[in-house]
Specification:
The complex is a heterodimer of chains A (465) and B (209). Chain A folds into 3 domains: 157 residues, Aconitase, domain 3 (2-Layer Sandwich), CATH 3.30.499; 119 residues, Aconitase, Domain 2 (3-Layer(aba) Sandwich); 176 residues, Aconitase, domain 3 (2-Layer Sandwich). In chain A, strand 13 and strand 14 form a beta hairpin. Chain A has 465 residues and is α/β, with parallel strands linked by helices. Chain A has 16 helices and 19 strands. Chain B has 209 residues and is an alpha/beta fold. Chain B has one domain: Aconitase, domain 4, CATH 3.20.19.10. Chain B has a 7-stranded mixed sheet with strand order 6-5-4-1-7-8-9. Chain B has a two-stranded antiparallel ribbon with strand order 2-3. The longest helix of chain B has 14 residues. Chain B is globular. Classes of the chains: A alpha/beta (465), B alpha/beta (209). At the A-B interface, helix 2, helix 3, helix 5, strand 8 and helix 10 of A face helix 4, helix 7 and helix 8 of B. Bound molecules: iron/sulfur cluster.
Chain lengths: 465, 209
């Protein structure tokens, strides 16, 4: 039977099949961060177990650390320092490579896992973090797990799983001006719902994907979890291979040729079947923005939010979301004043994101009513951005230029926007309270956020191109 | 892990869709490197009244603060319960608060796994069946779950069947430890790694594994 990319990744890692039809999978890499990794490592030690192969385990400080220049172990979050010091102690004891607070390669785990060549095409990768699906862009089977599952992988290098169903989403056509990978995924979720991924493994393909840069592919796969997918995948191609080559943990010269040959075999064969297929004509997509408290509450920037004419559960949920966000059914988002703008996160904290935003910010100034913050996703991104002078553009426009970390993506650093404040954000979640209790988050692309920061209100970024 | 065989308790209807783990426990409530001490933070965004960021008391409008739901141990919800962040704290907080089972139309994948790992039973039923349980539980009656039979019944009504992988059913009925089970396959894993290493030498970063 013709195989899909995912069939190949799965069977390549099957240690054994269990009586009930599930499989025990070999896991190539584990990545952790100080918020959930510290708990997994502590609990493992308390139960008298050992990390089976520390060389394949990595850990980042990204979630709780603060992002102010000159930072140390102190955080605004009460008790935050304990997470940092426990992570440092437990990783050291277990012999795990830690990207510590001020390590020159520190950053958000999903970024550095790719930057360092820790995740490679064909790998199985887990991390106690739901956005691990980001790394599927490399053609790796990468997914988020809980702390208990993480303990199991640390102790056994395996995880038991029922093989998920598979979906193929094809994006075809050329992107309109101002449309980015972020708009593609927001469009998909708005059309098929936050539940639309149905816990399936989704392979993204199509002429649009072929043309996307590696960084844009990460953005696309990042939000597969907001679509309720098990995870996402993109088959490795020349773009992938060029990206991976030469990275710290990528194959050395003596394995280069064999690895590339192996990666090139990782694609879906003709006539392979999927449980579900979706085809999207991207020429119909324009810049998107969310209006509510689920990523499915997203519309094209120039469209009104929905009218609610029934008392269905869905309509009630939407009404609740509109109340939280301070909107009425049918209202138009354009022109709504904002108080915050945030550029960063594992969705849009890469160099090309900062470049795109800087193109909008150049020679302009942030509206005085807006607090604008940029946190590059990693030290590597920050260094490269600074080498291009992007920091100067951001600062001259009135943005704060911060140290890498998750930062205001979810305010675990203890820093948030206040109740009622409206924030345009390049992050992936617009959940209630995600960026501060009562704060109102609109998710959009970096150019949409930059344009809104300048205008002081939700704006069509195409006016700034 | 604690064994789970059957349970009866008051079911709280929270029927909205997409109740995410940020709502179940906001990140600001995860204050220590610990799986305990989280129950106070459960649903804290809605459960308390606030002045600025200070909690000033219970929010009387929130269902868990209303009789008889204070003594609840089963939660009824809609689609995609526990979506969002992978934080297992959502499960730890629900369990510590006293929940033994969730009954929803579907779950966030990671939440579903996390719940099973901690003996919190995530049951999948259809919208109409959940609505029926919600109606019966509002009469101060209880919902009864039988894991051996894989049934749920409300208000003395007839049992409704649900599905659960046999693997998880046995795991919960027997209170088995996942790691111990996986360690039974160490020999197979060693064989696998030996073969795999020949095929993908670049995937192995140390000399001995
Ligand atoms: S940037 Fe946000 S979504 Fe990404 S890992 Fe950090 S907290 Fe999670």
């Amino acid at each position: 039977m013709p195989k899909t990319l995912f069939d190949k990744l799965w069977s390549n890692h099957e240690v054994t099949q269990l009586a009930d039809g599930s499989s025990l999978l070999y896991i190539d890499r584990v990545f952790m961060h100080e918020r959930t990794g510290s708990i997994a490592l502590t609990s493992l030690a308390e139960n008298g177990r050992q990390v089976r192969n520390p060389a394949h385990v990595f850990c980042a400080m990204d979630h709780i650390i603060d992002t102010f220049p000159g930072r140390g172990d102190q955080t605004l979050m009460p008790g935050g320092t304990e997470f940092i010091t426990t992570t440092r102690a437990t990783t050291r004891q277990a012999g795990i490579r830690l990207f510590d607070v001020n390590d020159p390669d520190q950053g958000i785990s999903h970024l550095i896992s790719a930057e360092q060549g820790i995740t490679l095409p064909g790998f199985t990768v887990v991390c106690p973090d739901s956005h691990t699906c980001t790394l599927g862009a490399l053609g790796a089977f990468a997914w988020g797990i809980g702390s208990s599952d993480c303990e199991q992988v640390l102790a056994t290098e395996t995880l038991r799983s029922q093989k998920p169903k598979q979906m193929r989403v094809r994006f075809d056509g050329e992107l309109n001006p101002g449309v980015t990978a972020k708009d593609l995924i927001l469009f998909l979720i708005s059309q098929y719902g936050a539940n639309g991924g149905n816990r399936m493994v989704i392979e993204f393909c199509g002429t649009t994907i072929d043309q996307l840069s590696m960084e844009a592919r990460f953005t696309l796969c990042n939000m597969a979890t907001e679509f309720s997918a098990f995870t996402a995948l993109i088959a490795p191609d020349n773009t992938t291979i060029d990206y991976v080559r030469g990275r710290t943990f990528a194959p050395a010269d003596n394995h280069l040729e064999a690895s590339i040959t192996s990666w090139r075999s990782l694609h879906t064969e003709q006539d392979a079947t999927f449980e579900q297929e979706i085809v999207v004509d991207v020429t119909t997509i324009v810049p998107m923005v969310s209006w509510g408290t689920s990523p499915e509450h997203s519309v094209r920037v120039d469209a009104p939010m929905p009218q609610l004419d029934s008392d269905s559960q869905e309509a009630q949920d939407k009404l609740k979301a509109m109340r939280y966000m301070g909107f009425e059914p049918g209202q138009v988002l354009l022109g709504t004043a904002i108080q915050g703008a945030f550029i960063g996160s594992c969705t849009n904290g890469r160099l090309s994101d900062l470049q795109a935003a800087a193109n909008v910010l150049k020679g302009r100034h942030v509206d005085p009513g807006v607090t604008a913050i940029c946190t590059p996703g990693s030290q590597q991104v920050k260094r490269r951005a600074e080498a291009l002078g992007l920091d100067k553009v951001f600062i001259a426009a009135g943005f704060e230029w911060r140290e890498p970390g998750c930062s205001l993506c979810f305010y675990a650093g203890g820093e948030g926007f206040s109740a009622g404040q409206r924030v345009m954000s390049t992050t992936n979640r617009n959940f209630e309270g995600r960026q501060g209790r009562g704060a109102r988050t609109h998710i959009a692309s970096p150019i949409m956020v930059a344009a809104a920061a300048i205008a002081g209100k939700i704006t069509d970024c195409r006016e700034f191109l | 892990m604690n064994k789970f065989t059957s349970h009866s308790g008051i079911a709280t209807p929270m029927l909205g869709d997409n109740i995410d783990t940020d709502q179940i426990i906001p990140s600001r409530e995860m204050k220590r490197v610990s799986k305990v001490g989280l129950a106070d933070g459960l649903f804290s965004g809605q459960r308390y009244l606030y002045e600025g960021n200070q909690k000033i008391g219970a929010n009387p409008d929130f269902i868990l603060n209303q009789a008889p739901y204070e003594n609840t141990s089963i939660l009824l919800s809609g689609k995609n319960f526990g979506c969002g962040s992978s934080r297992e704290h959502a499960v730890w907080a629900l369990a510590e608060y006293g929940f033994k089972a969730i009954i929803a139309q579907s779950y966030g994948e990671i939440f579903f796994n996390n719940a099973l790992r901690n003996g919190l039973l995530p049951i999948v039923l259809g919208e109409a069946e959940i609505a029926q349980l919600a109606a019966s539980s509002s009469d101060l009656t209880t919902v009864t779950i039988n894991l051996r039979e894989l049934t749920v019944s409300g208000n003395g009504g007839s049992p409704i069947s649900f599905q659960l992988e046999t693997y998880y059913q046995e795991m919960l009925l027997n209170g088995w430890d996942f790691i111990d089970l996986a360690l039974q396959f160490t020999d197979q894993l060693d064989d696998f790694a030996k073969q795999d290493r020949k095929k993908r030498p670049w995937a192995y970063l140390s000399a001995t594994d």
